[in-house]
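We were asked to recover a plausible sequence for a given structure. The inputs and outputs are reproduced exactly as logged, with field labels preserved.

PROBLEM: sequence recovery
POSITIONS: 468
GIVEN STRUCTURE:
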């Protein structure tokens, strides 16, 4: 399966196979010579992290970059360390490649959905409850005791700060104690500690901080720290926020012979290891959200009418309804911007479309000209919408074949509707209402069905070309 990935450092959209992404993310985050069962844990976690973002699983894709499932901007789409995609794929350790193959399609789920597989370097004795780190309770992120990482000695566990450094880093003002050697009142106060010795919150210089905030701002290894008044030695136990899987602990567990399923189950409470559902060949559009827009409802002053009295809005609506059936039968979630003959203004149609967070938007309308000479099919997409352009190509191919129409061209435009809809969007001008032959085709229910079938076929080919 190929994913559309936005390379943040290059402002470039590329297609990358999901296995390659998992390999790169894993190689970036774990030690090269980790134990195989630990590597399996991690590749399953990386696959889960990707699955969670994919629209196939109800994820949102990357909200910043049109048509992309994920981006590599730090902290935007993926919580995990993002690898440099330039590193040659041959440099990925063999052990990681093997683990990806051996755990093919496996992801971690909770109540049927991919979990958010948090991990940290070393918990120092116990992992954390989610509410203490990210503020909300997540059932599978419960505190578990981890005796496995305790014998591993950390570098950098001690850090020294002067009063002035603390003031500037935490943006506080400390009233200097008269005797700095003994008195710590007014500097570190109201320290709240959980049973495992992690600092939940504390006041520094009169300002309240969460333990995790202090850890992040002062770049400490963990929230389990002690301090000494003289030079402010901050001494940490463990490394990281303590949520989810403990990397060092899991490495030890693998070393003593535990399997990846047991390790994952140990750190993530109540989860299951599931097969990742791939788009099935008989339901090629599974998980896709598509909005169809039948232009020109009743009362639209721009609605075209043929010499025989055929109304454009009715034709558009019939084709959109037929198309909805075809798409839904093949697994897509389909919404129409109007459900009856009533006309809806453009801004409202864009609003309806955006509320559905679609993958693609297709507006169906008919063309007119001042005399009856012009005939054929035109397709429009917004400028720089490359996905829209690709889809337009498939649409032109199928429609001109099925309707035996002239290919009048695919054009880049700045139409309001195509601009406002926040996904790849195309507008089809199927045929000319003002041309007698085109109008005769449009009047035929059989041709209307053919038009719907052609659009469906084009959408399917468009997705298949993406690797599904
Ligand atoms: Zn993103
Ligand atoms: Zn641990």
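RECOVERED SEQUENCE:
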């Amino acid at each position: 399966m190929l994913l559309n990935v936005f390379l943040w450092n290059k402002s470039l959209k590329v297609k990358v196979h999901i296995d390659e992404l998992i390999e790169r993310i894993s190689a970036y985050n774990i030690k090269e010579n980790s134990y195989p069962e630990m590597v399996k844990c991690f590749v399953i976690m990386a696959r889960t992290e990707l699955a969670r973002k994919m629209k196939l699983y109800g994820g949102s894709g990357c909200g910043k970059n049109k048509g992309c499932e994920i981006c590599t901007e730090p902290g935007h789409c993926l919580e995990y360390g993002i690898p440099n995609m330039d590193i040659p794929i041959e440099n990925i350790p063999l052990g990681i490649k093997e683990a990806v193959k051996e755990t093919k399609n496996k992801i971690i789920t909770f109540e049927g959905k991919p979990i958010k597989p948090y991990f940290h370097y070393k918990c120092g004795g116990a992992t954390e409850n989610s509410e203490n780190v990210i503020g909300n309770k997540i059932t599978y992120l419960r505190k578990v005791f981890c005796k496995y990482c305790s014998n591993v000695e950390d570098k950098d566990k001690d850090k020294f700060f002067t009063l002035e450094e603390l003031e500037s880093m935490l943006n506080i003002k400390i009233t200097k104690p008269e005797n700095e050697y003994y008195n710590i009142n007014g500097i570190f106060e109201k320290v709240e500690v959980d049973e495992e010795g992690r600092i939940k919150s504390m006041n520094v210089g009169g300002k309240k901080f969460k333990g995790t905030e202090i850890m992040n701002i002062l770049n400490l290894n963990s929230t389990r720290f002690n301090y000494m008044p003289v030079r402010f030695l901050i001494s940490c136990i463990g490394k990281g926020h303590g949520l989810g899987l403990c990397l060092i602990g899991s490495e030890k567990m693998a070393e003593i012979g535990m399997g990846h399923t047991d390790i994952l189950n140990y750190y993530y409470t109540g989860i299951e290891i599931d097969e990742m559902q791939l788009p099935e060949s008989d339901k090629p559009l599974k998980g896709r959200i598509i909005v169809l827009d039948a232009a020109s409802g009743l009362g639209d002053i721009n609605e075209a009418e043929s010499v025989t009295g055929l109304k454009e809005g009715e034709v558009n609506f019939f084709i959109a309804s037929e198309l909805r059936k075809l798409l839904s039968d093949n697994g897509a979630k389909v919404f129409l911007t109007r459900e009856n003959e009533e006309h809806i203004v453009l801004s409202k149609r864009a609003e309806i479309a955006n509320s559905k967070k679609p993958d693609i938007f297709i507006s169906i309308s008919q063309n007119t000209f001042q005399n009856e000479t012009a005939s054929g099919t035109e397709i429009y997409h917004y400028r720089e919408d490359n996905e829209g352009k690709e889809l337009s190509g498939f649409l032109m191919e199928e429609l001109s074949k099925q309707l035996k129409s002239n290919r009048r061209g695919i054009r880049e435009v700045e139409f309001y509707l195509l601009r406002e809809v926040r996904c790849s969007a195309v507008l089809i001008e199927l045929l000319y209402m003002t041309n007698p032959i085109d109008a005769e085709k449009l009047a035929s229910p059989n041709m209307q069905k053919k038009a719907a079938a052609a659009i469906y076929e084009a959408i399917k080919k468009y997705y298949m070309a993406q690797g599904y």
